[in-house]
Every structure is written in C-alpha cells, then in structure tokens.
Amino acid sequence: LVEGALLMRTPDDIHTLYKERRDAAGAMWARLDEIRQAYNGDLVVALPGLSKSERPAVANLLQSGIDQTARRIASTDPEAIFTPDRAGQAALDRAHLKRDVVRGWWHRNDMPKKRGRRARHLIAYATTPVTIVPDHDAQPLWLLRDPLNTWPAPCPDPDDIVPPDVVCSYKRTAKWLARCWPEQYARLSKREASQAFLCLEYLDAYERVLIVCGDATNDYEAPM
Asked: How far apart are CA 91 and CA 84, in angstroms?
C-alpha cells in the first residue's frame, strides 16, 4: 500500500526499522505503558488495607492530575500572526488572509479537542507526535499519533521536532482494510471480518507507505 511517486523503503526495511526502534526503547516504553495503564484504570495496585468492595472507590490521582494540567494547557487558544512584508493596505490584507486561512485549517481539524489530547500526551509521556498530511481535497489534516506506538528516527539534535522519518504502528480491522484498500486486502491469505491486523505506517519527505504485518497483539492499545 503506497502513496508517493518513489518507493524508497521496502516492507522488510520498514519492519526492521520498527523492530530495532522498539527494542531500543524497550525499558522506557514499559515505563510509559505503566502510566497508560494507571490512567485507564488497568494497572493492578496492591491495596491491602481496603476490601474488594472499597477498592473501586479509590481516586485515580494520576488520571485527575494529568487531566487537570492538560485542561489548563489546552484552555489557551494559540494565535496565528503574519506580519506584512511591506507597507500598504494590500500587504496588510494579504497578511490577514493568511491568518484567516490558518484559522480555517484549525477550525476544520477541530483543534480544541486535538489540543486537549496532545496536552494529555505531553504531560503523561513528555511527547506528543503529530503528522500533517494532505486531506482528500488537499487541505492539511492533523493526525495525532499514539506516543507509545510512534517510532521516529534518531536525531543528532534531541530537540529536533522533525525527524528524517518515522514508523507508526497501530491496529486496524479487516473491515477497515477492505474498505480503504480493497485490492491489496484481497491478496491477504488469511482474513476474517472480525480480525485485527498490525499495520506499520512509514513516513518521510518522499513517501508514505502502509504495510500489514499480521495479527495484532494486545501490546497495541488506544491512546489516552
């Protein structure tokens, strides 16, 4: 499944990159996954002083702390500012038009909701990956990525927010694959309507590639 004029990476290359980057981040990934489990209420915490009937009433302080801080971050709307490149009303009008276009993109992408989710990711995981791709009508589309299943290429500058390439892993159902990629889906040897597949999406400056690796496992959970 390929979008782009040139295929620079083979499926085997992409799968190898994914395995290498996940293995390298194993210890940190496990710690971040504990945060996700605690936030979702899935982490088993020993509370010997409470009975089984009392334990569900224990406050999830991690969840409330993340949510409260994230709401404060997301409550402030950003502003797009374009400075006129020369004096005159025409230049000022062009600057205002650019600002209105960016505001229109934000409105179309429902940015208040996405800012809230990105703020939760930032507080919980100290990272909030997003990719911007053209929509079906060439408008920019913000796609929020699960920090636990996003594997960027190592950068010499740790503060570089645009890595050379990235591999994202996620679950997709057979129904989704059949709807979006009917010809490629028909080539899969084993498929059931209720089956979930592990998909790897590779992105760089030249191409966007999606490969199906097989059955998904329980390691790939939905983000917060």
From this structure: 5
The token duo for 210 is: 């999606």
Identify whether the C-beta of residue 213 lies closer than 8 Å to the C-beta of residue 198.
yes
pTM of the model: 0.78
Angle, CA of 218, 222 and 224, to the nearest 5°: 135
Max intra-chain CA distance, the chain: 74
Give the whole-angstrom CA distance, residue 131 versus residue 143. 5
Residue in this structure with the two tokens 């395995």, named with its chain if needed: 19
Can you tell me which residue has the tokens 């000022």?
Answer: 92
Distance CA 30, CA 191 (A): 30
Q: How many helices (H) and strands (E) does the chain have?
A: 7, 7
pLDDT in tens, 14-67: 999 999 999 998 888 999 988 888 888 776 666 666 565 555 555 578 888 899
The residue length of the chain stands at 224
- Interval 143-189: pLDDT, tens: 999 999 999 998 888 788 889 999 999 888 888 888 888 888 888 76
